[in-house]
Amino acid sequence: MEIADGIQEFIECSKELKSTNSQDKYLQGLFNKIDKAEKVTMRHELMSGIIVNSGQLLLKFGIACVSLVGGALLVKGEIDVITFFAFLMVVSRIYEPMNGSLMNLAALNALSVNVERMNEISDNHEMTGKEKLNNKGCDIVFDHVKFAYDTGEQVLYDVSFTAKQGEVTALVGASGSGKTTVSRLAARFWDTSEGNITVGGMDIKEADPEELLKLYSIVFQDVTLFDNTIMENIRVGKKDATDAEVLEAAKRANVLEFAGNLPEGMNTRIGENGAELSGGERQRISIARAFLKDAPIILLDEATASLDAENETKVQEALSSLISGKTVMVIAHRMRTVAQADKIIVLDKGRVIEEGSPEKLLDKDGAFAHMYKLQTQSGNWQIS
Fold first, then answer.
1. How many Cα atoms occupy the beta-carbon half-sphere of 55 within 13 Å?
2. Rounded mean pLDDT of 125-154?
3. Could you read off the pLDDT of 198-225 as tens digits, one per residue?
4. Which residues contact 246 (CB under 8 A, 6 or more apart)?
5. Cα–Cα 20 to 30 A to 77, which of 60, 68, 86, 217?
Protein backbone atom coordinates (compact mmCIF):
# COMPACT_ATOMS: atom_id res chain seq x y z
CA MET A 1 0.00 0.00 0.00
CA GLU A 2 2.80 2.41 0.91
CA ILE A 3 4.62 1.56 -2.34
CA ALA A 4 1.54 2.29 -4.47
CA ASP A 5 1.00 5.58 -2.61
CA GLY A 6 4.68 6.47 -3.03
CA ILE A 7 4.66 5.80 -6.78
CA GLN A 8 1.49 7.82 -7.29
CA GLU A 9 2.88 10.67 -5.18
CA PHE A 10 6.12 10.65 -7.20
CA ILE A 11 4.19 10.89 -10.48
CA GLU A 12 1.94 13.70 -9.23
CA CYS A 13 4.74 15.69 -7.58
CA SER A 14 7.54 15.09 -10.08
CA LYS A 15 7.74 18.78 -11.04
CA GLU A 16 8.09 19.89 -7.42
CA LEU A 17 10.71 17.21 -6.72
CA LYS A 18 12.77 18.21 -9.76
CA SER A 19 12.53 21.92 -8.95
CA THR A 20 13.92 21.32 -5.45
CA ASN A 21 16.56 18.77 -6.50
CA SER A 22 14.82 16.19 -4.31
CA GLN A 23 14.08 13.57 -6.97
CA ASP A 24 17.06 11.28 -6.23
CA LYS A 25 16.46 11.43 -2.49
CA TYR A 26 12.77 10.64 -2.89
CA LEU A 27 13.49 7.76 -5.28
CA GLN A 28 16.05 6.34 -2.87
CA GLY A 29 13.42 6.31 -0.12
CA LEU A 30 10.92 4.69 -2.50
CA PHE A 31 13.46 2.03 -3.53
CA ASN A 32 14.14 1.31 0.15
CA LYS A 33 10.43 0.70 0.68
CA ILE A 34 10.32 -1.61 -2.36
CA ASP A 35 13.36 -3.57 -1.06
CA LYS A 36 11.76 -3.87 2.35
CA ALA A 37 8.47 -5.06 0.85
CA GLU A 38 10.37 -7.56 -1.32
CA LYS A 39 12.12 -9.04 1.71
CA VAL A 40 8.87 -9.29 3.67
CA THR A 41 7.14 -10.96 0.69
CA MET A 42 9.99 -13.46 0.21
CA ARG A 43 10.02 -14.27 3.92
CA HIS A 44 6.25 -14.78 3.88
CA GLU A 45 6.40 -17.01 0.80
CA LEU A 46 9.29 -18.98 2.29
CA MET A 47 7.34 -19.66 5.51
CA SER A 48 4.26 -20.72 3.54
CA GLY A 49 6.41 -22.96 1.33
CA ILE A 50 8.09 -24.61 4.31
CA ILE A 51 4.75 -25.35 5.97
CA VAL A 52 3.07 -26.67 2.82
CA ASN A 53 6.04 -28.73 1.65
CA SER A 54 6.58 -30.15 5.13
CA GLY A 55 2.95 -31.20 5.25
CA GLN A 56 3.15 -32.78 1.80
CA LEU A 57 6.35 -34.59 2.75
CA LEU A 58 4.71 -35.92 5.92
CA LEU A 59 1.71 -37.18 3.95
CA LYS A 60 3.91 -38.93 1.41
CA PHE A 61 5.96 -40.39 4.25
CA GLY A 62 2.71 -41.81 5.63
CA ILE A 63 2.02 -43.58 2.34
CA ALA A 64 5.56 -44.97 2.34
CA CYS A 65 5.15 -46.20 5.94
CA VAL A 66 1.86 -47.94 5.10
CA SER A 67 3.51 -49.61 2.08
CA LEU A 68 6.58 -50.78 4.03
CA VAL A 69 4.78 -51.91 7.17
CA GLY A 70 1.95 -53.50 5.19
CA GLY A 71 4.43 -55.29 2.92
CA ALA A 72 6.32 -56.65 5.93
CA LEU A 73 3.09 -57.88 7.54
CA LEU A 74 2.02 -59.44 4.25
CA VAL A 75 5.31 -61.35 3.96
CA LYS A 76 4.91 -62.61 7.53
CA GLY A 77 1.40 -63.73 6.72
CA GLU A 78 -0.19 -61.57 9.42
CA ILE A 79 -2.49 -59.85 6.87
CA ASP A 80 -3.88 -60.91 3.53
CA VAL A 81 -3.48 -59.18 0.15
CA ILE A 82 -7.00 -57.70 0.21
CA THR A 83 -6.38 -56.01 3.58
CA PHE A 84 -3.03 -54.68 2.36
CA PHE A 85 -4.52 -53.15 -0.76
CA ALA A 86 -7.46 -51.75 1.24
CA PHE A 87 -5.06 -49.81 3.47
CA LEU A 88 -3.12 -48.55 0.45
CA MET A 89 -6.33 -47.35 -1.21
CA VAL A 90 -7.53 -45.57 1.94
CA VAL A 91 -4.24 -43.77 2.53
CA SER A 92 -3.95 -42.70 -1.13
CA ARG A 93 -7.51 -41.34 -1.07
CA ILE A 94 -6.81 -39.33 2.06
CA TYR A 95 -3.64 -37.82 0.58
CA GLU A 96 -5.22 -35.69 -2.19
CA PRO A 97 -7.87 -33.89 -0.04
CA MET A 98 -5.34 -33.16 2.69
CA ASN A 99 -2.83 -31.88 0.14
CA GLY A 100 -5.52 -29.57 -1.30
CA SER A 101 -6.36 -28.35 2.20
CA LEU A 102 -2.73 -27.42 2.78
CA MET A 103 -2.63 -25.41 -0.46
CA ASN A 104 -5.88 -23.62 0.43
CA LEU A 105 -4.53 -22.85 3.91
CA ALA A 106 -1.49 -21.16 2.37
CA ALA A 107 -3.74 -19.15 0.02
CA LEU A 108 -5.96 -18.04 2.90
CA ASN A 109 -2.90 -16.94 4.85
CA ALA A 110 -1.77 -14.82 1.88
CA LEU A 111 -5.22 -13.19 1.66
CA SER A 112 -5.28 -12.13 5.31
CA VAL A 113 -3.82 -8.65 4.57
CA ASN A 114 -6.34 -8.00 1.78
CA VAL A 115 -9.20 -9.13 4.01
CA GLU A 116 -8.07 -6.75 6.77
CA ARG A 117 -8.06 -3.84 4.32
CA MET A 118 -11.54 -4.71 3.05
CA ASN A 119 -12.80 -5.00 6.62
CA GLU A 120 -11.51 -1.50 7.34
CA ILE A 121 -13.78 -0.23 4.56
CA SER A 122 -16.83 -2.37 5.41
CA ASP A 123 -16.56 -1.56 9.14
CA ASN A 124 -16.80 2.19 8.53
CA HIS A 125 -20.01 3.84 9.66
CA GLU A 126 -22.48 4.20 6.78
CA MET A 127 -24.40 7.44 6.79
CA THR A 128 -28.10 6.89 6.13
CA GLY A 129 -31.30 8.90 6.41
CA LYS A 130 -34.70 9.68 4.98
CA GLU A 131 -34.86 10.02 1.22
CA LYS A 132 -37.64 12.60 1.41
CA LEU A 133 -36.35 16.01 2.52
CA ASN A 134 -38.62 18.09 4.75
CA ASN A 135 -36.63 21.33 4.99
CA LYS A 136 -38.52 24.62 4.93
CA GLY A 137 -36.16 27.05 3.30
CA CYS A 138 -32.39 26.74 3.25
CA ASP A 139 -31.09 28.54 6.34
CA ILE A 140 -28.05 26.64 7.67
CA VAL A 141 -27.78 26.63 11.46
CA PHE A 142 -24.77 25.34 13.42
CA ASP A 143 -25.85 24.66 17.01
CA HIS A 144 -22.95 24.04 19.44
CA VAL A 145 -21.13 21.83 16.93
CA LYS A 146 -18.03 19.90 17.92
CA PHE A 147 -16.05 17.70 15.57
CA ALA A 148 -13.05 15.40 15.80
CA TYR A 149 -11.50 13.12 13.20
CA ASP A 150 -11.10 9.38 13.78
CA THR A 151 -7.57 10.05 14.97
CA GLY A 152 -9.06 11.85 17.97
CA GLU A 153 -7.81 15.23 16.77
CA GLN A 154 -10.35 17.87 17.87
CA VAL A 155 -11.01 20.33 15.03
CA LEU A 156 -14.10 22.31 16.06
CA TYR A 157 -15.15 23.45 19.53
CA ASP A 158 -18.72 24.60 20.23
CA VAL A 159 -19.30 26.34 16.87
CA SER A 160 -22.65 28.15 16.57
CA PHE A 161 -23.85 30.51 13.83
CA THR A 162 -26.58 30.90 11.20
CA ALA A 163 -26.09 31.28 7.44
CA LYS A 164 -29.38 32.78 6.23
CA GLN A 165 -30.99 32.21 2.86
CA GLY A 166 -30.51 35.18 0.56
CA GLU A 167 -27.32 36.21 2.34
CA VAL A 168 -23.62 35.60 1.80
CA THR A 169 -21.87 34.23 4.88
CA ALA A 170 -18.08 34.37 4.70
CA LEU A 171 -15.83 32.12 6.75
CA VAL A 172 -12.44 33.67 7.39
CA GLY A 173 -9.48 32.81 9.57
CA ALA A 174 -5.94 31.54 9.51
CA SER A 175 -5.04 28.27 7.79
CA GLY A 176 -6.06 25.36 9.99
CA SER A 177 -8.76 27.33 11.81
CA GLY A 178 -11.52 24.93 10.65
CA LYS A 179 -13.11 26.82 7.75
CA THR A 180 -13.09 23.95 5.26
CA THR A 181 -14.24 21.49 7.94
CA VAL A 182 -17.25 23.72 8.66
CA SER A 183 -18.23 23.74 4.97
CA ARG A 184 -17.82 19.95 4.68
CA LEU A 185 -19.95 19.39 7.78
CA ALA A 186 -22.64 21.68 6.34
CA ALA A 187 -22.95 19.30 3.36
CA ARG A 188 -22.75 16.22 5.64
CA PHE A 189 -19.50 14.88 4.28
CA TRP A 190 -19.01 13.85 7.90
CA ASP A 191 -21.29 13.78 10.93
CA THR A 192 -20.70 16.02 13.92
CA SER A 193 -19.26 14.61 17.15
CA GLU A 194 -21.63 16.79 19.19
CA GLY A 195 -24.26 19.40 18.40
CA ASN A 196 -26.60 19.70 15.42
CA ILE A 197 -26.60 21.21 11.95
CA THR A 198 -29.97 22.01 10.36
CA VAL A 199 -31.01 23.15 6.88
CA GLY A 200 -34.37 24.87 6.88
CA GLY A 201 -35.12 23.33 10.28
CA MET A 202 -34.24 19.80 9.08
CA ASP A 203 -31.50 17.97 10.99
CA ILE A 204 -29.11 16.89 8.23
CA LYS A 205 -28.23 13.72 10.18
CA GLU A 206 -31.77 12.53 9.43
CA ALA A 207 -31.43 13.09 5.65
CA ASP A 208 -30.02 10.68 3.12
CA PRO A 209 -26.62 12.11 2.03
CA GLU A 210 -27.33 11.66 -1.69
CA GLU A 211 -30.68 13.45 -1.43
CA LEU A 212 -29.23 16.17 0.81
CA LEU A 213 -26.48 17.01 -1.68
CA LYS A 214 -29.12 17.85 -4.29
CA LEU A 215 -29.52 21.08 -2.33
CA TYR A 216 -25.84 22.00 -2.72
CA SER A 217 -23.60 23.40 -5.42
CA ILE A 218 -19.99 23.13 -4.23
CA VAL A 219 -16.83 24.65 -5.67
CA PHE A 220 -13.81 23.13 -3.96
CA GLN A 221 -10.39 24.70 -3.68
CA ASP A 222 -8.87 21.48 -5.07
CA VAL A 223 -10.67 20.81 -8.34
CA THR A 224 -11.18 17.21 -9.48
CA LEU A 225 -11.66 16.66 -13.20
CA PHE A 226 -12.07 13.53 -15.31
CA ASP A 227 -10.19 12.35 -18.37
CA ASN A 228 -13.00 13.42 -20.66
CA THR A 229 -14.09 16.42 -22.69
CA ILE A 230 -14.69 19.86 -21.20
CA MET A 231 -18.37 19.49 -22.11
CA GLU A 232 -18.76 16.25 -20.14
CA ASN A 233 -16.72 17.52 -17.20
CA ILE A 234 -19.16 20.42 -16.81
CA ARG A 235 -22.16 18.12 -17.31
CA VAL A 236 -21.15 16.34 -14.07
CA GLY A 237 -23.04 19.16 -12.33
CA LYS A 238 -26.30 18.05 -13.93
CA LYS A 239 -26.30 14.67 -15.69
CA ASP A 240 -29.40 15.31 -17.82
CA ALA A 241 -28.39 18.81 -18.94
CA THR A 242 -28.69 19.66 -22.62
CA ASP A 243 -25.70 20.86 -24.64
CA ALA A 244 -27.25 24.34 -24.70
CA GLU A 245 -27.43 24.42 -20.88
CA VAL A 246 -23.82 23.26 -20.58
CA LEU A 247 -22.66 25.91 -23.04
CA GLU A 248 -24.56 28.63 -21.15
CA ALA A 249 -22.90 27.57 -17.86
CA ALA A 250 -19.51 27.53 -19.60
CA LYS A 251 -20.12 31.02 -20.96
CA ARG A 252 -21.04 32.41 -17.52
CA ALA A 253 -17.89 30.89 -15.98
CA ASN A 254 -15.63 32.19 -18.79
CA VAL A 255 -14.80 28.65 -19.92
CA LEU A 256 -15.54 29.40 -23.58
CA GLU A 257 -12.75 31.99 -23.49
CA PHE A 258 -9.99 29.36 -23.26
CA ALA A 259 -11.94 26.44 -24.78
CA GLY A 260 -12.12 28.31 -28.08
CA ASN A 261 -8.33 28.12 -28.37
CA LEU A 262 -8.24 24.33 -27.98
CA PRO A 263 -8.14 21.97 -31.02
CA GLU A 264 -11.69 20.65 -30.59
CA GLY A 265 -13.14 23.41 -28.46
CA MET A 266 -15.54 22.17 -25.78
CA ASN A 267 -15.09 18.61 -27.05
CA THR A 268 -11.35 18.59 -26.29
CA ARG A 269 -10.22 15.86 -23.87
CA ILE A 270 -8.33 17.43 -20.99
CA GLY A 271 -6.35 14.46 -19.65
CA GLU A 272 -6.26 12.93 -16.19
CA ASN A 273 -7.53 15.47 -13.64
CA GLY A 274 -7.30 18.20 -16.28
CA ALA A 275 -3.56 17.78 -16.81
CA GLU A 276 -3.76 19.71 -20.10
CA LEU A 277 -5.21 22.82 -18.40
CA SER A 278 -3.88 25.50 -16.06
CA GLY A 279 -5.07 25.83 -12.47
CA GLY A 280 -7.30 28.78 -13.33
CA GLU A 281 -8.87 26.96 -16.28
CA ARG A 282 -9.59 23.93 -14.14
CA GLN A 283 -11.23 26.08 -11.49
CA ARG A 284 -13.44 27.79 -14.07
CA ILE A 285 -14.76 24.37 -15.13
CA SER A 286 -15.61 23.66 -11.49
CA ILE A 287 -17.45 26.98 -11.24
CA ALA A 288 -19.33 26.15 -14.46
CA ARG A 289 -20.55 22.95 -12.79
CA ALA A 290 -22.02 25.06 -9.98
CA PHE A 291 -23.75 27.32 -12.51
CA LEU A 292 -25.21 24.27 -14.25
CA LYS A 293 -26.50 22.59 -11.08
CA ASP A 294 -28.07 25.84 -9.84
CA ALA A 295 -28.80 24.46 -6.34
CA PRO A 296 -30.34 26.59 -3.53
CA ILE A 297 -27.22 26.30 -1.32
CA ILE A 298 -23.77 27.26 -2.59
CA LEU A 299 -20.47 26.46 -0.88
CA LEU A 300 -17.44 28.24 -2.30
CA ASP A 301 -14.04 27.17 -0.97
CA GLU A 302 -11.50 29.66 -2.37
CA ALA A 303 -13.45 29.52 -5.64
CA THR A 304 -11.41 32.23 -7.37
CA ALA A 305 -8.02 31.53 -5.79
CA SER A 306 -6.41 30.33 -9.03
CA LEU A 307 -7.77 33.10 -11.26
CA ASP A 308 -5.97 36.20 -12.42
CA ALA A 309 -7.41 39.59 -11.48
CA GLU A 310 -9.33 40.06 -14.77
CA ASN A 311 -10.96 36.62 -14.77
CA GLU A 312 -11.61 36.84 -11.03
CA THR A 313 -13.61 40.00 -11.59
CA LYS A 314 -15.59 38.43 -14.45
CA VAL A 315 -16.33 35.24 -12.52
CA GLN A 316 -17.33 37.20 -9.42
CA GLU A 317 -19.81 39.17 -11.51
CA ALA A 318 -21.25 35.89 -12.80
CA LEU A 319 -21.32 34.45 -9.28
CA SER A 320 -23.34 37.46 -8.15
CA SER A 321 -26.16 36.41 -10.46
CA LEU A 322 -25.84 32.77 -9.40
CA ILE A 323 -26.10 33.43 -5.65
CA SER A 324 -29.11 35.73 -5.78
CA GLY A 325 -31.72 34.54 -3.26
CA LYS A 326 -29.65 31.53 -2.18
CA THR A 327 -27.80 30.45 0.93
CA VAL A 328 -24.12 31.10 0.27
CA MET A 329 -21.12 30.14 2.40
CA VAL A 330 -17.81 31.50 1.14
CA ILE A 331 -14.35 30.53 2.33
CA ALA A 332 -11.75 33.07 1.29
CA HIS A 333 -8.53 34.75 2.33
CA ARG A 334 -8.76 37.73 -0.02
CA MET A 335 -10.59 40.61 1.60
CA ARG A 336 -12.03 41.77 -1.72
CA THR A 337 -13.83 38.43 -1.94
CA VAL A 338 -15.59 38.84 1.44
CA ALA A 339 -15.95 42.63 1.48
CA GLN A 340 -19.52 42.47 0.14
CA ALA A 341 -20.60 39.59 2.39
CA ASP A 342 -23.66 40.07 4.59
CA LYS A 343 -22.07 38.28 7.54
CA ILE A 344 -18.53 37.26 8.41
CA ILE A 345 -17.68 34.39 10.74
CA VAL A 346 -14.12 34.60 12.06
CA LEU A 347 -12.69 31.24 13.13
CA ASP A 348 -9.59 30.65 15.18
CA LYS A 349 -8.40 27.19 16.22
CA GLY A 350 -11.85 25.68 15.72
CA ARG A 351 -13.78 28.38 17.59
CA VAL A 352 -15.94 31.30 16.45
CA ILE A 353 -14.26 34.38 17.88
CA GLU A 354 -16.11 37.10 15.94
CA GLU A 355 -19.34 37.39 13.98
CA GLY A 356 -21.04 40.26 12.18
CA SER A 357 -21.05 42.46 9.08
CA PRO A 358 -17.73 43.64 7.60
CA GLU A 359 -18.40 47.21 8.75
CA LYS A 360 -19.25 46.10 12.28
CA LEU A 361 -16.13 43.95 12.60
CA LEU A 362 -13.87 46.67 11.21
CA ASP A 363 -15.28 49.14 13.73
CA LYS A 364 -14.74 46.59 16.49
CA ASP A 365 -11.02 46.59 15.66
CA GLY A 366 -10.62 42.92 16.56
CA ALA A 367 -9.26 39.86 14.78
CA PHE A 368 -10.97 40.59 11.43
CA ALA A 369 -9.79 44.21 11.44
CA HIS A 370 -6.26 42.96 12.15
CA MET A 371 -6.44 40.52 9.20
CA TYR A 372 -7.78 43.29 6.96
CA LYS A 373 -4.93 45.64 7.90
CA LEU A 374 -2.29 42.96 7.34
CA GLN A 375 -3.64 42.15 3.88
CA THR A 376 -3.81 45.82 2.99
CA GLN A 377 -0.18 46.22 4.02
CA SER A 378 0.87 43.15 1.99
CA GLY A 379 -1.00 44.58 -1.01
CA ASN A 380 1.20 47.68 -0.83
CA TRP A 381 4.41 45.65 -0.55
CA GLN A 382 7.10 46.50 -3.08
CA ILE A 383 10.44 44.99 -4.02
CA SER A 384 13.13 47.33 -2.76
1. 17
2. 85
3. 999 999 999 998 899 999 988 887 788 8
4. 231, 234, 235, 266, 288, 292
5. 60
The closest alpha carbon to 306, from 315, 296, 295, belongs to 315
pTM of the model: 0.71
Cβ atoms of residues 216 and 277 within 8 Å:
no
- Domain residue ranges of the chain, discontinuous segments joined by +: 2-122, 140-379
Q: CA-CA distance, 56 to 358, in Å (whole number)?
A: 79
What letter represents residue 233's amino acid? N
Q: How many CA atoms lie within 13 A of 132 on its CB side?
A: 1
356 and 366 Cβ atoms separated by less than 8 Å: no
Neighbours of 220 (CB within 10 A): 17
Task: Confirm if 335 and 161 have CB atoms less than 8 A apart.
Answer: no
Burial 297-308 (b: 16+ CB within 10 A, else e): bbbbbbbbbbbe
Phi then psi for residue 329, to 5 deg, are: -120, 125
Query: How far, in Å, CA of 110 to CA of 121, rounded?
Result: 19
User: Alpha-carbon distance 5 to 30, whole Å?
Assistant: 10
Please name the amino acid found at residue 298. I
| Residues 334-348 pLDDT 10s | 776 777 788 999 998
Residue range 140-379, CATH number:
3.40.50.300
